[in-house]
C-alpha cells in the first residue's frame, strides 16, 4: 500500500513539474511581420491600440462615431431622469430638506406625514427646484 502511495506521489510530482515547463516553451511565438503599435485616444483616459498601417483608418472611424453621437444628441429630445436636473442636466440633485416643524411632526408620527407631503428636488449646481 505504501509503495503505491509513493508511486502515485512520484507520478503526480513529474506531471506538476513537466507540464508547466512544456506549456511555457510553446509560448515564445513572435509575429514575423514588421509593424509598430500606435495608440489612438478614444475618450479621456481611454486609448485604443492599433497597428501603424491602420492608424488613419482608426482615426477616421472614431471621428465618424463622434460626429454621429453629437448629431444624435442634438436630434433626440432630452429624456427626463429622476435624479438629473432638467435645466443643466447635472446629477448633483438632492431633496429639499423638510422644515423643522414638519421634521419634528414626521418623527413623532413615525414618518406617516411623508406620505402626504409634496417633496421637491433641488439641483446643487444651478439651484433649479422641481416637484419630486
| Helical segment count | 3
Mean pLDDT: 76
- Give the low-pLDDT segments: none
Question: Count the strands?
Answer: 5
Question: How would you describe what is shown here?
Answer:
The chain has helices spanning 2-25, 55-75, 100-108, and strands spanning 37-43, 46-51, 93-95, 120-123, 129-131. The chain is an alpha+beta fold and 132 residues long. The longest helix is centred in the N-terminal third of the chain and has 24 residues, at 2-25. Among the domains are: 34-76, no CATH class; 93-131, no CATH class. It is 41% helix and 17% strand. It is elongated, with a radius of gyration of 32 Å. The protein contains 3 helices and 5 strands, in the order H-E-E-H-E-H-E-E. It has a 3-stranded antiparallel sheet, with no helix packed on it. Strands 1-2 form a two-stranded antiparallel sheet.
Keywords for this entry:
about 130 residues; three-stranded antiparallel sheet; two-stranded antiparallel sheet; single chain; 3 helices; alpha+beta
Q: Any chance you could write out the topology, listing elements then pairs?
A:
Layout: H1 2-25, E1 37-43, E2 46-51, H2 55-75, E3 93-95, H3 100-108, E4 120-123, E5 129-131
In short:
This protein is an alpha+beta fold and 132 residues long. It contains three helices and five strands, in the order H-E-E-H-E-H-E-E.
Amino acid at each position: 500500500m505504501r509503495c503505491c502511495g509513493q508511486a502515485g506521489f512520484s507520478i503526480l510530482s513529474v506531471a506538476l513539474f513537466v507540464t508547466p515547463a512544456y506549456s511555457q516553451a510553446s509560448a515564445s511565438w513572435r509575429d514575423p511581420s514588421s509593424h509598430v503599435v500606435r495608440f489612438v485616444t478614444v475618450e479621456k483616459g481611454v486609448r485604443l491600440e492599433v497597428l501603424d498601417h491602420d492608424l488613419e483608418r482608426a482615426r477616421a472611424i472614431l471621428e465618424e462615431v463622434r460626429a454621429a453621437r453629437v448629431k444624435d444628441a442634438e436630434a433626440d429630445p432630452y429624456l427626463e431622469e429622476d435624479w438629473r436636473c432638467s435645466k443643466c442636466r447635472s446629477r448633483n440633485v438632492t431633496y429639499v430638506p423638510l422644515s423643522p416643524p414638519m421634521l419634528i411632526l414626521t418623527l413623532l408620527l413615525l414618518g406617516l406625514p411623508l406620505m402626504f407631503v409634496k417633496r421637491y428636488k433641488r439641483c446643487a449646481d444651478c439651484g433649479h427646484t422641481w416637484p419630486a
